[in-house]
Amino acid sequence: MARLMFLCAAALLLATCGAIPPSEEAARMARFVLHNCDWGALATLSAQEGLRGRPFANIFSLSDGPPGPLSGSGVPYFYLTDMEISVQDLEINSNASLTVSLAQTPYCKKHRYDPQNPLCAHIIFCGSIVKVNDSETGIAKKALFSRHPEMESWPKDHNWFFAKFNITNIWVLDYFGGLKIVTPEEYYSVKP
């Protein structure tokens, strides 16, 4: 009976939004969710007075590539400045976690899924934030400015730089029954 309910729910998901991967393809789901999100919650360990060592989450615009199917690299890119409080945390400890959710897309509202409902898929990445090297700057710039054109006009005196999330661990919550673990190798080997 539970298997039948699972298959019906999966069929309903696919029928209502043909592009969403089936929940048994966790790596593809992780790529799909990241590619369809324009922002995420980045959690750092605070270096700020009064919060030192405590978790601190902040919202950041991100992109893994220009919009469109199969155009995402899977790498979350950011446009950052040292003036930002979370970036100051990252200068002390570059480890972070990043959560992205289909709740920011029309998908969950269309299906009346609360953001906490596992069917409103969300992905948690752990790793570190690193500045991109010169050879990757063009890729990061295209990925971010194609989705966030306002970024190009941000104040130059803020010394913006491109960074990426270096993924070490991935957890997928896209169905009932708990988190699924996806390795970075599995994640990068599939298309969204």
From TrEMBL:
Name assigned to this protein? CREG1 protein
What InterPro entries does its record include?
CREG, CREG_beta-barrel, Split_barrel_FMN-bd
UniProt keyword Lipid metabolism present: no
Which parts of the sequence belong to the CREG-like beta-barrel domain?
Answer: 21-189
Taxonomically, the superkingdom here is: Eukaryota
Signal sequence range? 1-19
A single Gene Ontology CC annotation of this entry is:
cytoplasm
Source organism of the structure:
Galbula dea
Q: Which UniProt keywords apply?
A: Glycoprotein, Secreted, Signal
What compartments host this protein? Secreted
Any matching Pfam family: CREG_beta-barrel
Q: What's this protein's family per the entry?
A: Belongs to the CREG family.
Family annotation (SUPFAM superfamilies):
FMN-binding split barrel
